[in-house]
Amino acid sequence: xxxxxxxxxxxxxxxxxxxxxxxxxxxxxxxxxxxxxxxxxxxxxxxxxxxxxxxxxxxxxxxxxxxxxxxxxxxxxxxxxxxxxxxxxxxxxxxxxxxxxxxxxxxxxx
Length: 110
Hints:
The chain is mainly α. The protein is built from 5 helices and no strands. α3 (45-54) packs across α4 and α4 crosses α5 (97-109). The protein is elongated.
C-alpha cells in the first residue's frame, strides 16, 4: 500500500477497492475488471459520459458510462454480424454502409 501499513485483510481489500475505483476516472478500464474475464472494451468511457450528458443528464456516474459503453458494444457487434450476412448474401466480401443501415434497422426494431 501507500505509506500506511494496514493491519487486517479487510482493510487491505477496502483500500485496494477504493484505489481501483479512484483510478477509473483517469484510465480506460478493461471489461475484465468490471465484469469478469472478457475482452478489453473498444469504446472509451469519456465519450459515453458526453452521450449521457447530451441526452439530458445533469450528473453521470462512472458505472453508468461503462455500462452504456458495454451495451453499445454489444449492439454494435449484433449490427455488424447482421451486416456481414447481408454482404455475403449479396455476394460481396466488403461490408457497405447500406448493409449497416439495413442491419441496424433490423437489430434495433427487435
